[in-house]
Structures are given as structure tokens and as C-alpha cells.
Predict the 3D structure of the following.
Amino acid sequence: MRTAVSFPGPVLVRERSAAHRSLQVAGIVFLALLAVYASTLNSFRLGQLTVALLYATAIAGLNLATGYTGQLSIGHSAFFGLGAYTTGILVASHNWNPLVTLIPAAVICFATGLLVGLPALRIRGINLALVTLALGVAFPELVDRFPGLTGGQIGLNINVFQLLPPHWTGISIANRFQYYYWLSAGLLAIVLVLCATLTRSRAGLAMKATRDRETAAAAFGVNLAWTKMVVFGLSGAITGVAGSIFAIYLGSLSADASFTLTLSIVLITGLVIGGVATTLGPVIGGLAVYFVPYWTENIRQGEASELIFGVILIVLMFVMPEGLMGLITRLSRRVLRIEPQPPGQGQPTVDGGSSTVIDHHEERNTA
Amino acid sequence: MEFFLDRLFDGISNGAIYAALALALVMVYRATGTINFAQGEMALFTTYLAWGLTTKNVPVAVCLVVAAVAGFALGAVSERVLVRPIEKRSLLATLIVLLGLFSVLNASDGLIWGKGNQSMPSLFPNTLQSYVSVFGARLYWANIGVWLMVAAVFAVMFALFNKTRLGLQMRATANNRESAALAGIPVGRILMLGWGISAAIGAIAGVLVTPLTPDSLGLGEMFPLLIYASAAALFGGLDSPGGAVVAGLLLGVAEVMISAYVPAIGGQLQEAIAFVAIVAVLLLRPQGLFGTREVERV
Amino acid sequence: MTLLEVTDLKAGYGQAEVLHGISLTVGQGEVVVMLGANGAGKTTTLRAIAGLIGRRGTVSIGGTALRPGVPGEAVAAGLSLVPQGRGTFTKLTVQENLLVGATKRRDKASVAADLDRWYHVFPALSARTKQTAGTLSGGEQQMLAVARSLMSRPSLLLCDEPSLGLAPLVVRSVFDVLREINAEDGTAMLIVEQNAELALDLASRVYLLEVGEVVTSGAAADLRDSDTVRRAYLGY
């Protein structure tokens, strides 16, 4: 199939070979160095990065449900907020150690995700989207409804002294933004590894089967109900923990300001910009949805960003449904290609990049 | 007795509102097989448009017509330009594009007409005295207007789908687009027509419903309505206009009765209740009360 | 007289070209059969002719060339496709299915007459006029699909694998009906089939498709009667 080439074709690297491993290690080292460099930036930048990385984590959570399992959720702002308020309430009213609150936050969000995923047993895409919409809309209202617990519309404030870096980190109060930054970067790293492992495993195959061909998946014994429910729970838990750290960083919560439907739309936009069903897409997406509005703030306040996000969503679906990560992957394939091992050697590999949730129509032809 | 009737009328009024928007959702589903996820925002946009015109002293009746026409155009164009090219990719892609439209419309409302809440003038006499007394309870003209609208739209939809050639073509298109095309049905035009009519219904509903409460024309107005209307449409079975109306009325009455007689629940918890209600119904009877069960052949 | 003329038809899905230049004709009142293995491109050919997918090459009916990808035009020119898998309107009743077939016709009286006729030809359908079509058996749906297509009074009927998934007795009756219609109304037919034996019985000419190209064509009788040719191409 090779025609006369004027440049060398892509470098082929066998998966799991020594060359592949070295590339992976090099990549991780590079990212680590990048992270360390970032921690030397000034407090303001660190604060920005912290929030951007938290968004990235939240999007990674959303990716599990929407990207890999095909269930559109417009209610993930509620999980983010739920995690944030859980931490906020436990620290402010009950003096918990902030880091320990991550556990109940994760559990509560997981349970809520299961509950929301429950309808997924019986209902298809659009209906689930409506249910999640209800969740996203209901959350700020519920927060306002119980001011005794949540501070209602006035908001919830946590004493800064409770959120300072603990002694064992060795970070001084003056440098506390480094602490928050490392919290968010660390969480993101853990979540990315978790998601990557999950999506490349058998469970990941089940997720994608559920997404692509529901009836066929069911016929093959993939337990649809469980898959959808559990994935939704996990997805909510991840986003919730990101919310927890958000609370630790911000120290002051107001549902009407931070945890409304708009945030859900922002998260979905980030997911699409970065690349649905990709491992690193959420990172690009998180950075994009934080920094793009920041750079365009001069144009107009508030509503303009919502408008821009809406337009971006539409345009991307038409022009670049695979997102930036998908584009990068496609282009980089011209230069470097990781080849799967021949069958019969080790676990089955799953190609994470080539089929996106967005584009099915090539699968539908018949002779 | 008077208290009960007052609440009942309130409930039926609210219910009629949900039913009105639900009818729009059912319309598009019955005619095309998809749901217009951005329906609420289209209705809000056209209502703002109508309101904007009333501030320029255009009579409300004219604004209503303009809103309906604008709604029709908005729906038809959205179908042709946004939905049709994307549909063949996947449901998720379609939903995302509609979510984008949702966002664009909502943001545009704020940018064009401002972020504050406005009061929408009514088509009918709308003062505190504009009511009819029934067994001592008050029945406001504006509310009667909404009921009439719902009844009229329902009657037209029923006749359209069951008695006309166009209606048959629409139902065929919604059921199996390819076979419809093979029969010579102009599928593209039918789809645009379905979305257009549905958006027009939504527009009319918006203009008639918003005046019922002063100061209620706001950016977030449509969210709870959309949820309730979707619940009503789903309860009734997405392809049953009658079901949507009945379900909408039931929802409205139930909501008011519960908050009237069980004061502990009220206000903001209503959304949570609707949410739980949707989930419960979908679990127990996915095709709703009156819908037809879908048989899926692999 | 040639009714359908297809010249150098090329079509495919996405990047993949499935048909590499197919040419065929169907004369007025003729029954032509297209045979070939799975994946040969038979369904694609019919879909391209009916305008469901885009194509290159020319397709003309009665001398008028059709635009690619516009099913309405093909129907207006007198063509009707009975799709693979029947394409039943599962949520509509049997009667409504038939009425949809006649949707382009203005003459109410003769539509009613046609309904009567097909109910007579397909008694199973007349017993179920108000039944939801999705609940019919495979064979009944096939009958319904054929009747629906004929409601538009086409001059050319395209049938995509009418025998697919049906019991042998039912298949036989389907082909009997097709023969009857061809005899009585003079409707030309282009039938795609895997069941070669029954199809060859009905047809006057045959095209054999392989990997998107016509590899052989001729009188059905010749193919049926020549042992070597038949064994080579059809394996029996």
C-alpha cells in the first residue's frame, strides 16, 4: 500500500516494548517537571492553575459517564457543589480536618450518582439528560432552602486558619497557594491514572459497549444496569472530590455563584473541547474553559462567556467532534504510531483514540 | 371549600402551563421522532421578543403573532441547520448541539434584553379584579385564556395527527424516516415543519403564561417549567398529546395541593419533588401513562 | 422498451466505494433478478437507484435521468422500493401503512379500490387492518411491505431480498404474488435475491454481482439450464 513517499512514514513502536516504556516514562517525567515548574509561579497564577486543574478533574469525572458510557449529564455541577458543601459544612460547623472530609464527600457523591444512575436502568439518552438537568437546577435551590445547614443565599464561610497547609507538608502560610496547587495537581494525577486504568480494562470495554451498541451489549451479557449505575456513581464521586478541594482552596461557598447549571455547561464544553473519551482531553478542556474566558473577559461580562461556550459547543460538534486531544492524536499518528501487540500475548488492548462517541455513522453500512 | 377550589384552580392553571409546553414537546416528538431539548429556551427567547415589542407599544395580540412566527422560524431553521447534519452521528452529539443552542439562546436573552426580571403584559384583562367567581373562588381571565389555548392546541394536534394526510406523513416520518422517504414523503420539509410548529406552540405558551405572575420573565424562568413540562410529556407518553395534557394537569394540581396541605414541603423543594417524580414514573412505566411501548428489534 | 437504464453506477459509504461501475437495464414489464453473495453490493445498488444514497453515474427511468440522492424523484418517476428488512411503519396500523404507500396519490376512489384489491390478494392483512404493524409476523410484514410499495402504482418495483428470514412456504407465496402482479399489471421488477432457485424461476434475465461489479448477465433460462454455468456461479 505504500506509494512513493517523499518523507519517511511514521515511526512504529510496539506496545509494551522497551521503546514504548521509555517513551511513557519520558512523558511522565516531562509532566512532573512541568508540574514542579508551575509550582514556582506567583500566588495569583497558582490560584488560577488550581481552579483550572480542579475543573480538569471534574471533567475527567464527567468523561466517564458521558464520554465513555455515552450518558449525557447536565447535572455535574451538582456533584461539584455537593462535594464542596460537604467539605465546607464538615470543616466549618464540625471542625473536621479538611483532607479527611474528602472521604465522606466521595461517598455521598457516589451514592447520589448511583441514585441518579438508577433511572438509567430504563431510560434512554434524552430522558437521562433531562433528569440530570433537573439535578443541576435543583441543587442551588436545595442549598438555598436550608440556610441553617448551608448558609443559604448568603453563603458558607470557612475560617482560613482551618484550611492552612498542615505541618507535615512543610509549606508556610505565605506559600499556602502552593499547597492548594499541589492538592489539585495531585488529585488530577491520581484521577487520570484511575480513569486510564479503568477505561483500558474489561470494565472499560463494557462501558464502551454500553455506549455504542446497547442492545448488542446486553445480548452479550454486559450488565447494562450495573455498568451505567456504577459508572455514574464513580463519575459523581470524582467530580465531587474535585469540588471538595475547591472548597478548601476557596474557603467561601455560594451556590448561586459557583454551582449552577452554567457550571454544568462549562464542564461539558471543556469535555468536548478536550476530546470526549480521551485520557488527557479533560486536562486540555479544564485549562481551556478556565483561561479562555479569563483572556476574553475584556469583551463582556457574564453572559458573553455563556454565549461563547454555546457557540463553541455547536461549532466543535461540526468541525472537530473528536476535540483537541483527538486532533492531536490524529496528527501525531503521522509521526509516531504505537502498534498493538499481535494477539495471544497478554491482555487484549483497547484502542482509546480511534472511535469517538461522536461519530457512529461509519458503523452502519451493510452490503 | 373556597380554599380548596382556589387551590384547585391554581393547580389547574399551573397544570395548564406545564401541559402547554408539554404539548410542544410532544408535537416535535410525534412529528419527527426526536425531542427538542432547547424547546424551553426557544420559548423564552420568543417571549422576550414579544416583551421587547410591547415596550415599544405594540399591542399584545400582535406581539403574540410575531412571537409565534418567530418561533416557527427559529424551530425550522434549527432543525435544518443544527439538528439534521448532526443527527446521523449520534444521539449524544445531537444533545450537545442542542445544549449549545440552549446556552446561546439564554445568553442572548441577557445580552439583548438585560438580565433583570421583567413583567409581561397579558393578552387578557389582567388586574386583580379580572376574575370570575365560581362558588366563591376566583378564576382569573388570564388563566382561562391559558386553558383555552391548551384546549385549542390539543384539538388542533389531535385533528392534525389523526385526521389529515399531513399528520399521517408526520407520524410515518417519526416512525421510520427511510421508509417515509421511499414512499415519496418530503422528509426534510416534514421535519422542519414539525420543529417549526412545535416552537410556535412554545412561543404562544410563553406569551400567554408569563403574564400570570408579575416579574416572572427572567433568564432562569424556563428551567423549572421545562422540567415540569418534560415530566408531563414523559408521564403522558411522549407520543400522546392527550396524555401530556392529563399528566400536566395532574402535576399542577398535585404540586399545589401538596404545598397547600403539607406546609413543610414548599417552595424550592418542588423541583426536587418533580425530579423524584420523573424518576419514579420512568422506572415504573417507561412509556408513560398513555404512550405506546417501543419494541426494539436487534 | 427499456424502462430502467443504469449506466456506470458508482456508490459507497463514507470513504469506501462499494459499487465500481454497474450497468444494467430493465425493460417494461420485465422481471430481472440480481444475484450475488453477501457483500457483493446488491442492496447498495438498489438503494442508489432509489435515491437513498448518493451516487455517480446515470440512472434514468423512461428516458428521464434522475438526480442522485432524491428519493422523491424516483417515486414520482414510477419507482418503488421494498427495502431489506421490510421497513414497516411499526407504530402505524396495517391500513395506515398502506395509506402511506399511496401518499402521493390524489385519486381517493381508486386508492380505496386498491386497498380492497390488496386486502383480497393478502387475506392475512385484511384480517388485521387496525392492528399495529409492528406486531405482525415476518411473513405478514413482507406482504404488507409489498402491498405498501404497490399502493403507489409503480411501473417498476425494486425488491431487496424478499425471502430474507421467511419460512419456505411463505417465501413461495410471496413469489407467487409477485408473479401474479407482473402478469396482471405489467409491473416491471428488479429483484435482489440470495435464494437463486425461486428467483430464476420468475425472472427473464439475470445479473450476477461480485464485489461491486457485474460479472455476468444473460437470460435466466440459460443460467438455469446450463449446468456448468450454474454450478460455477451458484454452486448447485
The CA atoms of residues 82 and 159 of chain C lie 5 Å apart. Chain C has a mean pLDDT of 89. The first helix of chain C runs from residue 42 to 50. DSSP finds ten helices and ten strands in chain C.
